[in-house]
Structures are given as structure tokens and as C-alpha cells.
Amino acid sequence: MSDRFGNWFAGLFDGEGSFIARVQRRETYTALSFTVKIALRDDDAEVIDHVQSHLGGNVHRDERNQPSSRKGSADQLLWRMSAISDLCEIVVPLFDQYGLRSKKHSEYQIWREGVVECYIRTRGGLAGGSDYDDAFLQEMEELCENLKAERRYD
């Protein structure tokens, strides 16, 4: 990856990106997920395409004309990456080298800790994740709460 793209992407993510971490406990399974996401109006499709062409990930259209959407909102394109191997092997090195400058830097530190630990426990994303022990899941739930708290505006 070029320095030009890395610096550009870090700046874009500072303004438009999100770090997501979730633990979802169900009766029959527990899901642990980490994601990075950028959402832009659909008239900025070339920006989303540029990101996907350099980093991979998935693009999804969020049609805002659905009844549940805010009135007058423009359709959005969302770029996402959620495979633990991609997050640890692509996104973590990118943000380690091309640091974030906004408050997202501290969010990244929390999110990064969970991604790296999950990567280690799943042997690079190759092992299933449903057999996490309760202590690890509690640790990840606390990490998710810390990430939410870091986002709050004081």
C-alpha cells in the first residue's frame, strides 16, 4: 500500500468511519464480531470503490427511501470489512502505520485489542468462534462497553 493511500484512508476514516464490536449471547450460540465501516452518500460511489479496490471488503447499498429511514435522507453506500483475518492482517497494520488523529484514535486502541485477541484465539480466523469460554466473553463484553463509552460526547 502506498503512503498516499494510507494517509488518505486514515483521514477519510477519521471523518466517516466506524469501529464496531459486538457480543451477542443467544440460547444456542454466542456471536462475537468486529467490523470497520465507512458510510457515504451514494453520489460518492467512486470513493467507496477506491477503498474496496485497495483493501477488499464488501459494499452494501443502504436505501434511505424505506419507511424506517429518516425523511429526506440520501441513499448511502457502506464499505465494510469484518473477517477477523482481514481486520488483523490489513486494517490493524494500516492504522498502526497511518495513525488516526481524531478521537477515533482512542476508539481504535480499544477495538484493536479485541481484534488481535480474537485473531489469536481463532488461529487467524481459521477456527470457529462459538467455543469461547465465559471469561473471554466477559472480557469482550467489557471491551464493547469501553468502546461505547469512548464514543460518548461529554
User: Segments where pLDDT lies below 50 for 5+ residues?
Assistant: none
Shape: globular
Q: Quickly give the structural class.
A: alpha+beta
The biggest sheet amounts to: 4 strands, antiparallel
> Quick check: average pLDDT?
89
Gap from first CA to last CA: 36 Å
Helix content: 40-55%
Order of helices and strands: HEEHEEHHH
**Helix count, per DSSP?**
5
Strand content: 15-25%
Number of strands: 4
Strand order across the biggest sheet? 1-2-4-3
Based on CA atoms alone, the radius of gyration comes out at 16 Å
Describe this structure in words.
A four-stranded antiparallel β-sheet has the order 1-2-4-3. It is globular and about 45 Å long. With 154 residues, the protein is α+β, with helices and mostly antiparallel strands. The mean pLDDT is 89. It is 49% helix and 21% strand. It has helices at 3-16, 45-55, 84-97, 104-121, 134-151, and strands at 17-25, 30-41, 58-62, 76-81. The relative contact order is 0.17. It contains five helices and four strands; from the N terminus they run αββαββααα.
Question: Which helices and strands appear, and what pairs or packs with what?
Answer:
Elements lengths: L2 H14 E9 L4 E12 L3 H11 L2 E5 L13 E6 L2 H14 L6 H18 L12 H18 L3
Q: Could you provide a short overview of the structure?
A:
The protein is of the alpha+beta class and 154 residues long.
